[in-house]
Design brief:
Elements: E1 14-16, E2 22-23, E3 35-41, H1 46-63, E4 68-76, H2 87-94, E5 101-105, H3 112-117, E6 124-128, E7 134-138, H4 143-150
Parallel strand pairs: 3-4, 4-5
Antiparallel strand pairs: 1-2, 1-5, 3-6, 6-7
Helix pairs in contact: 1-4
């Protein structure tokens, strides 16, 4: 049996809201009381563009309004010029995702989200259940299966 791991509070310093306006740092509570889906990406990550973003678009489209909260975090663990903070609004607009987007720069060994959630790269998906525990964390997620489970 897998140990239950409580989802750490977000420490990502820079955020824009669903309309692309800079905002205060996002908290997990702001994503609602239901399930939360967090997508980690890098602007210069080919897999993020070929599979990660399309998967997140599908999940957001199907599960919006079903007690789900969504966020995307630019975990810039390398490639500073290609993965700078100014790429965040560009990615939000390019993929038409009306959800909060954060930028988590490299500080010390890794961005805060990567440290706290022990992610290993991008694209990466984390699902947090309504009780606040990490229910899923991996490089890819079966969007159809997730959607079917909550349709």
């Amino acid at each position: 049996m897998q140990a239950k791991i409580k989802a750490p509070e977000l420490r990502v310093p820079y955020w824009i809201d669903a309309d692309g306006k800079e905002r205060e740092p996002l908290t997990l509570a702001e994503l609602g009381m239901g399930h939360k889906v967090i997508f980690c990406f890098k602007a210069a990550c080919p897999g993020c563009h070929s599979s990660g973003f399309p998967t997140m678009q599908k999940i957001v489209k199907a599960l919006s309004g079903k007690d789900f909260g969504f966020a995307a975090i630019h975990t810039a663990f390398d490639g500073a010029p290609e993965n700078s903070q100014d790429r965040v609004p560009e990615m939000q607009e390019k993929y038409g995702l009306k959800i909060p987007f954060g930028h988590d720069p490299l500080v010390g060994r890794a961005p805060t989200f990567m440290e706290d959630y022990r992610t290993r790269g991008t694209p990466y998906f984390v699902v947090i259940n309504p009780e606040g525990y990490i229910a899923f964390a991996d490089f890819s997620i079966d969007a159809d299966r997730l959607i079917q489970a909550f349709a």
